[in-house]
Amino acid sequence: MGRTLTAILAFICVAFLIVLGWFYYQEGSFEGAGARMDATIDDLPEETSEFANEVSEAADEISDELDQDGLPER
């Protein structure tokens, strides 16, 4: 369990540093990179909610199609 938790934390830290580095490369300063990360994190819940709704709607459409047409025979 300890190794798994350590691996997850290490992955999160490495991902954070990669994203920060990418934003630094695009913005040219850590101040700009930090501001961009803040804006991205602020938008994340709304974007995640929209994505979840789209996936849910697509799953409902597929379910409705399968209910109407039935499963294809093999």
TrEMBL record:
<feature type="region of interest" description="Disordered">
    <location>
        <begin position="50"/>
        <end position="74"/>
    </location>
</feature>
<keyword id="KW-1133">Transmembrane helix</keyword>
<feature type="transmembrane region" description="Helical">
    <location>
        <begin position="7"/>
        <end position="25"/>
    </location>
</feature>
<protein>
    <submittedName>
        <fullName>Uncharacterized protein</fullName>
    </submittedName>
</protein>
<keyword id="KW-0812">Transmembrane</keyword>
<keyword id="KW-0472">Membrane</keyword>
<feature type="compositionally biased region" description="Acidic residues">
    <location>
        <begin position="57"/>
        <end position="74"/>
    </location>
</feature>
